Structures are given as structure tokens and as C-alpha cells.
Amino acid sequence: MAKRCISLFLVSFFFFFASCLGVSEWANQKQGNTWCVAIVSAPPDKLQGFIDSTCSQLDCSPIRPGGACFEPNTLRNHASYALDLFYKAKGICNSEIGTPAVSDPSFGNCHYP
User: Fold this and answer.
1) Is residue 43, in this structure, part of any structural domain at all?
2) How far does the signal peptide extend, from start to end residue (predicted)?
3) Structural domains counted in the chain
């Protein structure tokens, strides 16, 4: 009886562990299918501060002059790119100025991370 209980426990543990790995993989895939973009009502100073902070840590060359995402040269578009760059790198969408989106904001030659 004890061997049967141990076997049942081990099988249950295996399935639990396997399902946790599946959920983790699903979560990573889900983030790959979502983006973080600037909300319309975000204050300009907060957007600029986020761009400055993010671009001091990560590569924001696509939103610099000559970059594929520089045009349209608007604070909101540049902030959206920086928000998504940070989201993909750190897994956090800043809810104060950003919101998750299920539609890819990429356009033309500008490809969001």
C-alpha cells in the first residue's frame, strides 16, 4: 500500500510540475503577443521621463533621428516604443502611462520589439 501511495504521489508531482512549466511557457508566449503602448491621457512630462530613463538603460536607436521608428516624431509614439521595449526586457508595462495592447503597433519599417 505504501509503495502505491508513493507512486501516486510521484506521478501527481510530475503532472503538477509539467503543468507549471506549461503555464510559464504560455505566459512567455502571451507576452510575445502583447505590447505596451502609451495611454492618450498620459502627461507629457511623465512620457518624456520614461523615455529618458528607459533609453539610458536600453537601446532606443529606432526612435532617434534617422531610426526606423523616429517618424512620426511625436512624444506619444516615442514613448510607446520605449514602453514596449521596457515591457519586453523587464516584463512590466508601466500602468501609470502605458497599457497592454493586443494589436501590434508596428508600421512600415518600424517594428516594435
Assistant:
1) yes
2) 1-22
3) 1
Q: H or E element: which one contains 98?
A: strand 98-101
Instruction: Tell me whether residue 6 is in a domain.
Output: no
Instruction: Tell me whether residue 91 is in a domain.
Output: yes
> What pLDDT is attached to residue 31?
54
CA dihedral angle for residue 18, residue 22, residue 24, residue 29, rounded to 10 degrees: 160
Taking a C-beta distance cutoff of 8 angstroms, is the pair 71, 90 a contact? Answer: no
The 10s digit of each residue's pLDDT in 3-27 is 554 444 433 444 443 344 443 333 4
- Confidence (pTM): 0.73
Are 82 and 51 in contact by the 8 Å Cβ rule? The answer is yes
Instruction: Tell me what pLDDT residue 3 has.
Output: 53
Q: What's the rounded Cα separation, in Å, for the pair 103 and 86?
A: 17
Query: Could you tell me the sign of the dihedral formed by the alpha carbons of 31, 33, 38, 39, in that order?
Result: negative
CB atoms within 10 A of CB 49: 13
* Angle at the Cα of 112 from the Cα atoms of 90 and 86, rounded to 5 degrees: 20
